[in-house]
Every structure is written in C-alpha cells, then in structure tokens.
Amino acid sequence: SRSGSGNAVIDRISRQRGKHRAMYQLRLSRRNILFTILLPLLFNALIFLMIDPLIGFWRMILTFGVERLNFGARVIMQPFDLGIYDLWIPTVAIRATLPSLLTWWVTALICIVAYLLSYLIKPNRGLPLIYIVRAIILVQTTALLYFALIPTSFPQELESYMANNLFMGVMLLALIPWILGATFYIFDFPIRRKILFTLLNLAFFIIALPLQYLLHVNLIALGSLLFMPILYLVFGLFIDVLAFVALYSYGMTRRSEAGRQSRGFHAVKQVWGTAMQDWEKPI
Fold it and tell me: Which of 93, 115, 171, 242 is 20 to 30 A away from residue 42, measured at CA?
C-alpha cells in the first residue's frame, strides 16, 4: 500500500540523513589502509633527509627578519640532544626585560576594560566569543599577578623560548603526516591529492613557524616578559592547531571536480527521488 511504501521510504531517508556526509566517502580498503601507513613513513623520511636544509631555511628567515626589524637581536644556534643525534635549532639572542610599572598598569587597565566590554556581547549569538575573550583575559591576569608578586623568578629566556618552540615545530612537522593518515588518507581521494595536500600542510608550517615566533620575540623584546605567557598559550601552538584544522577543512571540503556534488547530498537526493516515484504510483 501507499502508506507502507511511504513509511519504508521515510525510514530510508532517516538512515541516510543520520550520517555525516563525509561518511559517504569512507572506503576502508586495503589500498587506503596501506597509504595510511606508507605515506607518513615516506614523509617522515623526507623530513629527516631534508632536516639540514630546513634548519638552514629557518636560519635564513630569522636572519632576514632580525636585520629588517632591527630590535637588537642576533641569530644563534642552540643544540637539542636527541640521544644519537644533536639537532641544532636557530634562535635569537636578546635580553628581555621585566615589565615596567607603567606597562603593568596599562595592561591591567586593558584587561579590566576588555572584561567589562565582554558583557556587551549578546550571549545568544556571541557566547563562544565571550568565552575566548575571558579566557585570554584570565591568562593575562595570571601573568600580571605573577609579575606583581615574584617578577625576578620568571624562568624563561627569549633564546630558549624560540628554540623550544621551533623544536616543537619540527616535531609537529613529523606528526602531521600521521594525523592526516588517520583522518585524511583513509578516505577515497586520489593518491596525488593526498600527497599534494600533505605537502601543502608541511610547506605552510615550514614558512609560518619561524615567522610566528620571530614576531613573538619581537613583541616581547619591545614590551616585556609580561606578554610571553599569553603569546605562548594563546598565540603559539594553539594557533598552529587552529591553522591545521582550517587546512584540513579545506582539504576535506574542496571539490575534486567542478560541479561535483557531495556523495551524501547525492544519496539523499536519490532517496527523495525514489520517494516521489513511489508516492505517485497508484495504489
């Protein structure tokens, strides 16, 4: 009967609409599983073989930036003991200062004003923005309290700050192919798209990381150590993770062919067309 056919079609639509559209592209074939293992190994081997040119490129960027910014720094190399291998990371040598009384009070005033202004944001639409603003204020307020109570015991220097973050950047470069292996290679994309997308991610962070932390060091040198915690916690690795998520979103949603519809939408469209045909049939 028409009612029985309609109920069956509704069940089919519900099953289709209950899935995320990305799941229609999932093909756990042996080929994709093999790429999930082999491609990260290939890219890690490439990074290992190209580590010296990579470090040289970063040193060239830092040298160029230090000369153009002219804030009294110089580029040096700092070793990291990896057991059987010493990895030399470029960094900048410059003395950071403690916050002056004026800097402390101006920053505290900005935090108070920003906190009060956060109440003007409408919660029904801007609740995530409220959380972000107040979290940033909390981080900076913690730094203000620290430098008000025990300023001379701050353990971090600018040399080790940049070197440690660029060392983490090398680890991030090695980790990116494995993350993509678990979240991108498993989908039924052409092999050239997987390779090019991985190269896009690596190229972005190879260029962005030294510029990002050179900007951090410049701001801290011009301001004071008061701003190191917020730069590290909010505008450091957290920003890098957001950039990776943005690139991943681009790679997952980009259409490989012009005018191609997503498989999820196409499947729902087919089910809907079948429903209309069944509805138009005579009882």
Answer: 242
